[in-house]
Amino acid sequence: xxxxxxxxxxxxxxxxxxxDNSGVWQAPRDPWPEYLHRDHKGYYVLNPDRxxxxxxxxDFVLPYLDEDRGLGAYRVPSDTFNFIFDEIKxxxxxxxxxxxxxxxxxxxxxxxxxxxxxxxxxxxxxHHNYRIVMERPEDLDVLDVHFxxxxxxxxxxxxxxxESLLSIIxxxxxxxxxxxxxxxxxxxxIGHVKEARxxxxxxxxxRIKRAVEGTSEK
Length: 218
Prior knowledge:
- The chain is α+β, with helices and mostly antiparallel strands.
- Among the domains are: 2-78, no CATH class; 151-218.
- Helices cover 30% and strands 27% of the residues.
- It is built from four helices and eleven strands, in the order βββββββαββββααα.
- It has a four-stranded antiparallel beta sheet, with helices on one face. A four-stranded antiparallel beta sheet has the order 8-9-10-11, covered by helices on one side.
- A hairpin with a 3-residue loop joins strand 6 (60-66) and strand 7.
C-alpha cells in the first residue's frame, strides 16, 4: 500500500493482485481488506450505491468510509490512476513544501529526498516543524518531524528533542561501522555526533546549575 499525504488530506491506494492458489492475499504485510469481496465472477469492491466493481490484475483500490453504508472502495484501473497521479503530483509537492534545506542527500541517490522547514519560528527563535519529502517515479511519501516547542514545565512533551534525533543517528552510524560498511568517514561522523550530543548535555547541565532549566530564561 502506498500512502500519499498533503497538508490537507490523506488517501490510501491499495493495488490488487490475484491471491495465489492457497487463497492467500498477496498485498505485502497487509491483511485481507474487509472491503474486498468475492463471488463466482471474481473479486469485487462495493460502490457507494452498493453496485459491484470487479477487479482486474493491477487495479488500484481506494477505500472510503460511508456513515450510512459502512466501508467500501473504488476501483481505479492502473493506467487511469497513474495518469491522475502524474497530473496532481506537482500540486501535492507545492502544498507540502516550505523553505528547502540544502545538503540533504548526496549525488547519485536512487530516491530524491528533500527536507523543508515549515511554519513560523517558535520559542527560542527557531523553527520546530520540518517535512521530509521522498519522491519516487511511482509515488510521493512524506514524513513530518516536530521538535519540542516550549518548555516541558509549561507545555509538557509535544515533540522530539535534538538529543533524541542525534541518538538515532549515532546508533545507525555505529551499527554501520560495526558491519561491512565500516569506514574512516563513518568514524569521523560518529565522533562529531558524539561531540554534538555532549555539547547539548553540557548546556542542559549548566542550565540546571543556574536553576533556569525548564524555563524561558537564558
